[in-house]
C-alpha cells in the first residue's frame, strides 16, 4: 500500500486511485498509527470532492473551503471512529461533511428552522457524494430561494451566504429582531412547501 500511496501523491492524480479497499486501508492506518502519508492520500482524494459537493449544496466559496478544512481535520482527529464493517470510507467522510454543513446552518440561523435544508442535505451516503448533494437538489434549493419575496430572500442570504446570526441581520437591516425571525420563518415555510412539492 505504501507504494500505491506514494504513486498517487507523486502523480498528484488521486482521481484514478479510487479503490475502496485502498481508501479503507489508508483510513485504518490513520486511525491506528496517525500515518501522515495515509492522511495526505485521503486529503488529496477527498478534499476537492468534499468542497465540490458543498458548493453544489449552496455554500459560498469561502464557506466551502472552511468547511472542507474542518471536515478533513475531523477525519484526522476522529479516524478511530470509522468502522469498516458499517460502510465505506466515502460514506463516512461525506456523512462528516453533511453534519458539518448542517451544524453551520444551525449556527447561522440560531434557530430550529433549518428543516428545509436538512431535507435537501439528507441522502443515502452509502455510495458517496453523488447521492449526498445531487446537483438537481441544489438547483431546486436555488430556485426556491429565487422565488421568495425580496425582503425574505435577503434575510436568508445574509444568514446562509454571509453567515450572519439573526441579531446581526436585524442590526444590519435596522429591523426589529422579531421581524427578522418572522420573515425567516415565512421564508422557510415557503421553501419547504416548494421543495416538498417537487420531490
TrEMBL record:
One of its GO terms (biological process) is DNA-templated transcription initiation. GO terms for molecular function: DNA binding; sigma factor activity. Residues 139-190 form the RNA polymerase sigma factor 70 region 4 type domain. Keywords: Sigma factor, Transcription, Transcription regulation. SUPFAM superfamilies: Sigma2 domain of RNA polymerase sigma factors (SSF88946), Sigma3 and sigma4 domains of RNA polymerase sigma factors (SSF88659). It holds the Pfam family Sigma70_r2. It comes from the Bacteria. InterPro entries: RNA_pol_sigma-70-like (IPR039425), RNA_pol_sigma-70_dom (IPR014284), RNA_pol_sigma70_r2 (IPR007627), RNA_pol_sigma70_r4_t2 (IPR013249), RNA_pol_sigma_r2 (IPR013325), RNA_pol_sigma_r3/r4-like (IPR013324), WH-like_DNA-bd_sf (IPR036388). PANTHER family: RNA POLYMERASE ECF-TYPE SIGMA FACTO, RNA POLYMERASE SIGMA FACTOR SIGZ. Belongs to the sigma-70 factor family. ECF subfamily. This is RNA polymerase sigma-70 factor (ECF subfamily). The lineage of its organism: Bacteria, Pseudomonadati, Pseudomonadota, Alphaproteobacteria, Hyphomicrobiales.
Amino acid at each position: 500500500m505504501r507504494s500505491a500511496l506514494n504513486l498517487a501523491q507523486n502523480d498528484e492524480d488521486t482521481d484514478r486511485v479510487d479503490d475502496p479497499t485502498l481508501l479503507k486501508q489508508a483510513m485504518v492506518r490513520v486511525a491506528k498509527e496517525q500515518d501522515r502519508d495515509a492522511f495526505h492520500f485521503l486529503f488529496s482524494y477527498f478534499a476537492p470532492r468534499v468542497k465540490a459537493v458543498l458548493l453544489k449544496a449552496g455554500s459560498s466559496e469561502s464557506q466551502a473551503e472552511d468547511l472542507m478544512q474542518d471536515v478533513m481535520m475531523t477525519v484526522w482527529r476522529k479516524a478511530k471512529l470509522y468502522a469498516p464493517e458499517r460502510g465505506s470510507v466515502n460514506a463516512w467522510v461525506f456523512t462528516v461533511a453533511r453534519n458539518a454543513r448542517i451544524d453551520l446552518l444551525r449556527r447561522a440561523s440560531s434557530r430550529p428552522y433549518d428543516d428545509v435544508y436538512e431535507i435537501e442535505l439528507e441522502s443515502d451516503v452509502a455510495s458517496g457524494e453523488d447521492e449526498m448533494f445531487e446537483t438537481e437538489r441544489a438547483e431546486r434549493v436555488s430556485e426556491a430561494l429565487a422565488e421568495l419575496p425580496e425582503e425574505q430572500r435577503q434575510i436568508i442570504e445574509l444568514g446562509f451566504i454571509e453567515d450572519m446570526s439573526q441579531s446581526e441581520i436585524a442590526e444590519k437591516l435596522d429591523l426589529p429582531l422579531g421581524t427578522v425571525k418572522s420573515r425567516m420563518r415565512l421564508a422557510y415555510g415557503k421553501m419547504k412547501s416548494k421543495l416538498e412539492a417537487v420531490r
